[in-house]
Specification:
By secondary structure, the protein is α/β, with parallel strands linked by helices. Strand 17 and strand 18 form a beta hairpin. The protein has 13 helices and 18 strands. It is globular, with a radius of gyration of 22 Å.
């Protein structure tokens, strides 16, 4: 018995996990719309597509709980059909079929045509860059490659996403032009590994050439780089960053650890000395650059000495942005053969200590910004504040600029100039000095 009336044949896409999944959901929604389907993102709909994450334990739990929630809604008559796609489905399809059989169908990460067919839609090859964006109108993700060829011991991404495959420059420029025509002003370039871009297509690392092409797109004001790999980083990218005002002086480069023995076991292909020199080279090439990194603590065999080496290095490097995660023991990865020998409580304590240290570093760096002016994009209004970001901050993960909304009106998506008047650990407070 249907307990509530839902609009018939409305497809609700639910996205879990990272920005790559957000992008994939947007492509799916664009294809559905092109086939005349009524499609929404995380709203009411009688047909549900869950785009899952299968990266680490917490993400897998969230994905499974979401599937169970919608299967229950199906049993209660609140939705008619539930489809599951994405990384969890790619990685654990046989288990899921056995454990949660009441899902209508499971699809992997490369089965978009099959999923569309199940939803009564056709896959249209000609839809380059046609997406229904789910992010605020001023920024969008641009996925420049799929998959990863790196052998990192702890990572399950190649199992779920396959080998590295770059998207041709001309297709990415077309996509950027279509996004700009919709009012997008900031492109956030994503891939499992930006550093590798172009090696498969052009036989050389071609990220710099891609950036040269994207800066020519009218309407795009900021281009931001996410998820670069330290080994083999193409240094010509920094020259373009310095020369082209549209490219944010920002780089997300997950370094994972710094102890040589841990780096070796992680199969990262680098050392403490090389990594430290790379960061120094970045800062020498682009002096006001913001570097975001992520670290893993509690990796198998990580000793107290390894951890103290990492902690001391974080103190010395003073990263502008940093996230720290506890190691997740993932089956079918190389590290799964090692003993997961760091107790969970120790992992958590180490992560907390690193983040406490980082919050102090972030506070100190933010104090230096007081009195300075920055170009800020306004993302939203929240409570009594307009909330924006500088070029040194990515959405959802980095610092925000809060502007008192009681005596000024700012449009979402517009750029304005803001003088910083106060600063906390992760927030800046400012007042507009020049409105557009």
């Amino acid at each position: 018995m249907r307990t509530k009336s839902l609009k018939k044949n409305r497809i609700n896409v639910v996205t879990l996990g990272c920005s790559k999944n957000v992008y994939d959901s947007e492509v799916l929604m664009g294809q559905l719309k092109a086939s005349g389907k009524d499609v929404v993102h995380e709203e009411e709909g009688n047909i549900v597509v869950i785009n899952t994450c299968g990266f680490i334990n917490n993400a897998k739990e969230e994905s499974i709980n979401t599937i169970l929630e919608y299967v229950q809604k199906k049993e209660d008559g609140e939705v008619d059909k539930v489809f599951v796609t994405g990384c969890l489905s790619e990685r654990y399809k046989p288990d899921l079929l056995k454990e949660i059989p009441n899902v209508d169908e499971y699809f992997g990460t490369t089965e978009l045509p099959g999923l569309l067919k199940a939803l009564g839609a056709d896959y249209k090859h000609e839809l380059i860059g046609e997406r229904l964006t789910t992010t605020p109108k001023n920024y969008a993700y641009l996925k420049i490659a799929e998959g990863c060829d790196r052998p990192c011991s702890f990572c399950a991404i190649p199992l779920m996403r396959g080998k590295h495959k770059s998207t041709p420059i001309e297709d990415l420029v077309t996509e950027a032009e279509k996004l700009a025509a919709k009012g997008v002003k900031e492109l956030i370039l994503i891939a499992q590994d930006l550093t590798y871009y172009g090696l498969d297509l052009y036989k050389k690392r071609n990220l710099a050439e891609l950036l040269e092409a994207l800066v020519k797109v009218d309407g795009i004001e900021w281009i931001r780089l996410h998820y670069a790999f330290p080994t083999g980083f193409p240094m010509d990218v920094l020259e373009v960053m310095k020369r082209e005002p549209k490219i944010c002086h920002y780089l997300d480069i997950p370094l994972q650890h710094i102890s040589d023995s841990v780096l070796k076991s992680m199969r990262r292909g680098t050392t403490k000395e090389k990594t430290t020199q790379l960061i120094k080279d970045f800062r020498a090439a682009v002096p006001n650059m913001t570097i975001r990194t992520t670290l893993i603590v509690g990796y198998p065999g990580e000793t107290e000495a390894d951890y103290q080496t990492l902690k001391q290095w974080v103190k010395e490097m003073r990263f502008e942005r940093l996230g720290c995660f506890t190691y997740s023991h993932e089956e079918n990865t190389h590290a799964y053969n090692l003993e997961d020998d760091v107790p969970e409580a120790v992992k958590q304590q180490r992560a907390n200590e690193i983040m406490e240290l980082q919050s102090q570093i972030s506070w100190e760096l933010n104090q230096e910004k007081i009195g300075n002016t920055f170009k800020v994009v306004i993302d939203r209004k929240e409570g009594g504040y307009f909330v924006g970001r500088t070029e040194f901050d990515s959405p959802d993960v980095d610092n925000e600029v809060l502007i008192d909304a009681s005596n000024i009106y700012l449009k979402t998506g517009e750029f304005t100039t803001v003088k910083i008047t106060d600063a906390a650990d992760f927030d800046l407070y400012g007042e507009v000095v020049m409105s557009p």
